[in-house]
């Protein structure tokens, strides 16, 4: 099962978190990540963040990415959204 953990952090504290599960391995890993991020944004009532080059590189290296204010078009009320693959 493919699982991604997402958490909203402000001042080193978790505001909200969620885990998205996907067992449909007919999709590519990239598609599963994008679909999970879309579901995360829906559940946490956020606009979709933009994948900057630095974000993509961090995700490729560590299977973890942080989306800060630079990644969002609208103003956010938290320091960052972090997503991490916890099971593949």
UniProtKB/TrEMBL annotation:
Designated name of the protein: Uncharacterized protein
Domain of life: Bacteria
